Amino acid sequence: QVQLVESGGGSVQAGGSLRLSCAASGRAFSRYVVGWFRQAPGKDREFVATVTWTNDNAIYADSVKGRFTISRAYGGNTVYLQLNSLKPEDTAVYYCAAGFVAGANSFREYDYWGQGTQVTVSS
Fold first, then answer.
1. 87 SS3 class
2. pLDDT per residue over 1-52, tens digit each?
3. Residue 115 to residue 123: CA distance in whole angstroms
4. Which residues contact 66 (CB under 8 A, 6 or more apart)?
5. Is 75 left (phi over 0), alpha (psi -120 to 50) or beta?
6. Closest CA to 68 of 17, 110, 9, 13
7. Would you state the pLDDT for residue 30?
């Protein structure tokens, strides 16, 4: 069993930055792939980025490439999502998730989810 807790959301103006954190607890974290997703009101859950615990190879959605960075804390159980150059269309609840499929960009391929953290970007 894996527990995930997100933090770091908030309200910012367009062009601003936020750093989201996903703290994991449980067993065998080195085996897990971690991903970030987001969901805006009335829309489907959308892939944002993913990275493995033991490999720094990260994959991003085209909509966030060059603006967001996913990273993990070496020796720890935390994954970060740095959000730069934020746009109003980035407004959503952001979720972190853990699974076993490297490079997975579908929410169906993740087994564990956090409760989400709200990001609101005003113009």
1. coil
2. 789 999 999 999 999 999 999 998 887 666 788 999 999 999 999 999 999 8
3. 26
4. none
5. left
6. 17
7. 66
